[in-house]
Records
---
Amino acid sequence: MSDTSPNLSMPYILPSQAQKHVTHNEALRILDTLAQLSVLAADLSVPPDSPAEGDRYIIADGASGAWAGHEGAVASFFGAEWIFHEAAPGWLAHDRAAGQILHFDGSGWLPLPGPRVLENLERAGVNAAADDTTRFSVRSEASLFSHEGAGHQVKINKAGEADTASLLFQNDFEGRAELGLAGQDDFSIKVSPDGSNWTTAISVEPARGIARMPCLQSGIVEIANDSVTAITPPGSCGFLFVTIVDSVYSQAPHSGIFVYDIGLTPMLQSLALAPSMANLGTTTLTGTTGTSGRSSLAVGAGEIRIENRFGSFRKYSYTFIGSD
């Protein structure tokens, strides 16, 4: 039979032993050191200058002085000297300086998972494997992000305009739909039948909030008096609705509905034309081509032009319904 206990190496009182109190007190000292283990610090490699009786430390790497050669051990100060206890796998200790619980894994002391340990993780997987690209991975039927007394935002940040900040929806890990800032700052919704070929269904310009779609496009253009602005339709042919946006004058006299073709044979046909809106067909507009006091439209190769001769700065609202 051994003379010490198997776990804490506490000495046994042997039969017919003299001065039994010495052995008993030694066992109590070990128990006093290691039970409810709480150390003052675990990052010191040199003993403190003025330790108090009963002070305990976990010795850090590179120990020197009285602690030399005892890295990872629990050092306790008793009777004006340091007593060392080698840790066993599974031991727990409270690090009072760091405010965290440590555990010994057989080779060193590591923090137990907790609120502070979960900061700055390299990766995390919840019921799923994380990797160097997908550093946070969750596999579940649902995920909940709730408020804490007010609202809640989910933020996706990118480094630069040419980078991507988006939500990607997949089918068997192949992309089918994506929304966000995909390689630019226009907000877009894209779809794909196979994860390789993508079509932009909707894009929104951030500066003016203009929405564009393959067969539907709306926006507002600002045109100075006696000036011309060109608009590129979403397709080679379709319908165009245009009107002056004005809070003072009635919009009705300055509106028109057209059928256009900007292909090989450009054409602009009026379906409904208010008195202050003119269709000049394929005429080249210069800013003073149309009649004074009116707005004129004309079609050219790949574009439709609007000329403002209304007498002052005007905003024009337009909507295209056309082929892709």
---
Amino acid sequence: MRVKNVKTEVSPGVTQTLWTFNGTAPGPSLRGTVGDVFDITFVNDGSIEHSIDFHAGALAPDRPMQSIAPGQSLTYRFTATRSGIWLYHCSTMPMSVHIANGMFGAVIIDPPGLAPVDREYVLVQSELYLGAQGGEADADKVVAQAPDLVVFNGIANQYGARPLTAGVGERVRVWVLDAGPNVGSSFHVVGGQFDTVFKEGDYLLRDGGSTGTGGSQVLDLAVAQGGFVGLSFPEPGHYPFVSHVMSDAEKGARGVFLVNP
């Protein structure tokens, strides 16, 4: 995991210099199963001190989560002992600004017996607090919790222009993680109903639940929480997905599933 400062178009015509893991915000999604060992070499090629904190591992933070100066590196080793979708992020203070400026990502540890699906997507929600064009996050906006944009996978409205795809009747799984740093999520698919909901390590609903006919309309997440939903689409068309915190959807936390026959 290498820190890089990258100028990124976060909305049409709007650029910011993000502090990234491996060049993108969110950083790369990692995946494994319970018992897997992750060996991460963390390299700071940025311009200030940074660190990394993997929620997917349980260990004393003193050494692996320490801040390191530009040009330094460290090794971070953890064993996945619990399943779910876990946040990783920079934990250097002010942590809120480091996360807001792009330093976050997801680690998926599959629960045992995870059912196969036809299509699977990962959506990481976060906020952007715009500084000057081409500049870095506005720390005052971060403190005031006044985001300019709320986004999935780093770019406002990107899945309106480039919809996610599925077919009628296909099983679709959507992993959702809220990276924050300040705003929760209420993930909803317009025209869709979830028959399976997994949140923070356990099923809230599975294959319609105890009645066999149960459904869910949102996956609600506080900051740093995550899970997945399962659904299928009954007919062709365009199915918007949003955070049902509607002012956040209007700031960019929205997209579209294009469902083909």
---
Amino acid sequence: MTSFARSDRSLIAEWWRTVDKMMLTSLFLLMGVGLLVSLAAGPAAAERIGFSDPYHFVYRQAFFMTVSAVLLVGASILTPSWARRVAGVIFIGGFLLMAYILMFGHEAKGAQRWIRIAGSTFQPSEVVKPALVLLIGWILAQRENFPNAPWTIVAFALYVATMGLLLLQPDVGQSALLTAGFLAAFFVSGISIWWVLGLGAGFVALGGGLFALFPHVRYRVNSFLNPSDYDTYQVDTAREALERGGLLGAGMGEGQIKHNLPDAHTDFIYSVIGEEFGLLVCLALIILFAVITVRGIFTASRHPDPYPRAAAVGLFTLFGLQAAINISVNIALIPNKGMTLPFISSGGSSLMGSALTLGFALALTRRRPEISMRRFIP
């Protein structure tokens, strides 16, 4: 393991001494699993879509995984103040792009969420989510320094504006994730009971409105509650693949789901893993996601500074809930929702969004002696 002299005060040395190495190792392990799984699912996806190179998605995943690794480390090196500044730039740019794609974006499967860039697509909402959650954590923390300013209303207004753009795309899944991160940051920052009651009533009404207004939301909920009355081919195929895999799997390259489902390399990658590598590997992945999420939330919740505490808890909530939603869909625990598995599913936007989420979270939870000593300074 790399070590630095105590006298070395360089940026990299300070980062290495203060970053959560267990967390960093776990994240790079997830990335390695993502590259391995791309070898299993990528060629079948390339053949089905019609690419001449069977390793198109493998090369693409390797490229974006490299970019994401750089983003993760780069974001984790930032100080909390610089993380806030970078998040502000990302949020403003991403928000403007989300408004742009409503008029000129790339449409697919009835949704308009992407921008075409050099033959690939980019989904701005993937990077807007972590940036906004970090900013909300900072905004809410300002209530301690400037208690008379309407910080809570400002944070809520930013959330509502972003939610509005997401629902116009429409993207209910990303909206749910953003809401979870927003609520986590709000909860940790210490909101009043009136805000809790108001937000609770508002989200119940929002859920009912989404069910009534969006046919695809209504279809997915109804097909989950009454599967015999609807076409549940994708979820049934995913569940059957997990059953075929058994304890140890059919072997890498021997699975069938990747040939039968169009989204096997993205939304249903967990079933590909289960079929080819088995239940033990699936359980190991769940444990890895749980360790990262729980360790991150526990570390963040003990931070003495309200800004890193609220923002980091929200970021780790984003990461953990996204993994939980993807896995739950694959094992038919919740209605089907297009949601990638962080660092595992194919997709450049998803990889970069996950990298920023955990990079910012690592930056905010790094051990900083000057902050810890505040507890002992009168």
---
Amino acid sequence: MDSQFFVTCPYCGESIELYIEPDMRGSFVQDCEVCCNPWRLRLVGRGDDRYLDVSRADGSE
């Protein structure tokens, strides 16, 4: 099961590698480790078919 995801910050455009626990599901908020702005992460799917959607979590969404 793939637990590493490469995402692009919706604020600064930096590409970042994230490790997400295999049993984690749903939505959560995490700050960009480069520009410190908040992301809303939504993990969809199960097993090897997991997909991570990243969007801004600053109230503009």
